[in-house]
Amino acid sequence: MNLSWLGQYRDVGILILRAGIGVMMVLHGWSKLAGGQHKWEEVGGAMGYLGIAFWPVLWGFLAAMSETLGGALLAVGFLTRYAALFITGTMVVATTMMYHVGHGSFSEWSHPAEIGLVCLSLVVIGAGKYSVDRA
Asked: Could you give the C-alpha distances from 19 to 63, 92, 126, 132, in angstroms and in order?
């Protein structure tokens, strides 16, 4: 079966990818953002796995904003490369934390690693034709 004809819909594919990941990131991030200082401190504590033990509330807030605001920016395709870069960084920390918490269990760390790879790809390929960035 030859599916090469789908290449003409490359930008539609990028839109689906960007919007889908963006909405999912907003849903993941909103509960962290709405959780307030207690939740931010908990989330920011993950930086300890990278040897950064200071300001956990700030790191947690930045992670929650990265997922929530970054996800919204991805969904509409505005400042896409920057939003995707911040989400990638957040997912690197989440992957590291899940690897240590899950003692290396693939099922524990694979999800943030996968999201990080998708967002890193969006840093490289950009928002595509159907985005605010392109408008």
From this structure: 19, 21, 13, 12
- CA atoms within a 13 Å half-sphere pointing along the CA-CB vector of 94: 25
**Residue type at 127 in one-letter notation:** A
Residue 28 structure tokens: 């993941």
Distance CA 58, CA 75 (A): 25
The residue among 98, 75, 99 whose CA lies nearest residue 87 is 75
Kindly report, residue by residue over 5-14, the tens digit of the pLDDT: 888 899 999 9
- pLDDT tens digits along 22-42: 999 999 999 999 999 999 999
Residue reference for tokens 């269990």: 105
Listed by start position, the domains of the chain span: 11-125
Q: Does the pTM of the predicted model rise above 0.70? A: yes
Tokens for 69?
Answer: 């605001």
| CA–CA distance, 48 with 108 (Å, rounded to integer) | 18
